[in-house]
Design goal:
Length: about 500
């Protein structure tokens, strides 16, 4: 039931984000101002991830050793918040000291970043706290609140803000402060949920951290820092590199951000499934329940690939419609969107490979592969953006992420005997490829809206019956079968 509720919230948030990114922000804000918002969010996300040093993954991995509600979970929350606060303040100090250099990278000494870039400082600290409180909420199995505050509440607040901007025409400084405020409210909402449920317990006086456990946590946090950076950096690094390397950098950041966020719609349903899975995986590794981990791995890969393939085909069918809703300049991001969408399908096909490695004793490999991914992404960005322009960043992500994902999957097979694929994986890929060929071969049907409706209908009417009857995702097929059975019984 919780998974369905989280999926519903995530879907509502995805729709709100679609309206924001496709219909509102690109139309109401000039491209450079919209690009500025994306640069600030990207900087804050990367800085916050660096500041909390892998503490979010550490909380999830080691919470079973601290779990004791009567002792306020032995002060774990107070410990990680103290460390996170120090790291966040240091990150803010660095960004303040190097503000002038960042301004030169993203335009000029008197450009938009120079004038408004310092609003990133409170955003960094807010993101540090959000990462830590989200991890704590997931550890105590309150994973609905993080999904609600970040995927739904934040999107609705940002929609209200841009509509207010269209009506009242705020000064840009006021708008940027209010924009940062939406993130602060999102974090505050998560804290409020913990307080209301009686789980906001610090227990610093009850903190007991055996030396051996402390060293283990420190090693794990530093190792998973690399994997956390990889998660945050993918997309954010691309946007920053586009802003730094291309002429009219903030404009191009806006175009690339639209492509990235449209493509990320493919990941939304999967995120709702991943959130509750991480604590379960941590418990399973602790109890050495290898069969349970293998089952979660296979099922997650099957469901995610089916959903991802369908959403990618729908995005492909509706690409012209999507970009017709925006200002003409944004159409240059169409190819980048399709490439990034394919990257996300590949991501989903790997199931929970990253989470399984991160919660196991082989977490060092998650850090290693994550660090290699970040380095490879930056190097390829530099080469591909220079050669191909904005779309080069998308090609960079495709090459880098596919290489690292393949490495992780092979590692899990050799080290733990885990493998997410079977014959159904091949059938799903063949089905998706066949429908992609059909989309290419279909003629243009009248206007772009009629064309989209026909193409999306063809995809839907062929894809889902095939998934159901071939049982490409058994869990989904069983749910549909159960619903159909209830309908028949009532009739």
């Amino acid at each position: 039931m919780q998974a369905l509720l989280k999926m519903g919230l995530a879907n509502c948030g995805a729709r709100s984000r679609f309206v924001n990114v496709v219909l509102l922000y690109p139309r109401i804000l000039p491209a450079d101002e919209f690009g500025l918002t994306r640069v600030l969010v990207s900087i804050a996300a990367i800085a916050a991830q660096m500041a909390q040093l892998g503490l979010d993954n550490t909380v999830i991995r080691y919470f079973p050793y601290f779990r004791d509600a009567t002792r306020k979970h032995n002060g774990l929350l107070a410990l990680v918040l103290s460390i996170g606060t120090v790291g966040g303040l240091l990150a803010m100090l660095v960004l303040w000291l190097f503000h002038g250099q960042f301004a030169l990278w993203f335009g000029a000494a008197d450009g938009l970043y120079a004038e408004y870039g310092l609003v990133v400082l409170p955003l960094v600290l807010s993101e540090v706290y959000f990462f830590l409180f989200r991890a704590y909420s997931r550890s105590i199995h309150r994973s609905i609140a993080p999904t609600f505050t970040r995927e739904f509440l934040l999107r609705v607040l940002q929609m209200a803000l841009i509509l207010a901007q269209a009506w009242w025409h705020f000064d840009l400084r006021v708008f940027m402060l209010l924009y940062v405020g939406t993130f602060l409210i999102s974090t505050a909402g998560l804290v409020f949920d913990l307080w209301r449920s009686g789980n906001l317990t610090f227990g610093i006086a009850k903190l007991r951290l055996p030396r051996r456990l402390g060293r283990s946590m420190m090693r794990y946090g530093l190792f998973t820092f690399g994997s956390g950076m990889a998660t945050i950096a993918l997309g954010n690094v691309d946007q920053l590199m586009v802003g730094v390397m291309l002429k009219d950098g903030l404009d191009n950041v806006a175009y690339y951000a639209v492509a990235f966020y449209i493509a990320s719609v493919i990941l939304i349903p999967a995120r709702a499934l991943v959130l509750p899975s991480m604590p379960i995986l941590a418990e399973a590794w602790k109890k050495r329940e290898h069969a349970k981990i293998d089952m979660i791995y296979r099922r997650s890969a099957a469901i995610q690939l089916v959903i991802g393939a369908y959403l990618f085909l729908c995005l492909w069918a509706g690409a012209d419609v999507l970009f017709s809703l925006m200002k003409p300049g944004y159409s240059i991001a169409k190819n980048a969107m399709l490439i990034l969408g394919f990257v996300n399908v590949i991501n989903l096909a790997g199931g929970l490979s990253g989470g399984i490695v991160a919660t196991s004793r082989s977490y060092w490999f998650d850090a290693l592969s994550g660090a290699v991914l970040v380095i490879l992404n930056v190097v390829l960005d530099f080469a591909f953006i220079k050669a191909f322009g904005m779309v080069g960043a998308a090609w960079s992500s495709l090459v880098a992420f596919t290489s690292i994902l393949a490495w992780r999957i092979v590692f899990l097979k050799r080290k733990h005997g885990l493998w997410p694929f079977d014959a159904r994986t091949v059938i799903t890929m063949v089905l998706g490829l066949a429908l992609a060929i059909v989309l290419l071969m279909l003629p243009q049907f009248g206007g772009i809206w009629l064309d989209f409706i026909i193409r999306a209908s063809v995809v839907t009417l062929v894809f889902w019956p095939a998934v159901y009857y071939l049982r490409l995702a058994p869990d989904l097929s069983d749910q549909v079968h159960m619903v159909l059975g209830r309908i028949r019984n009532k009739s």
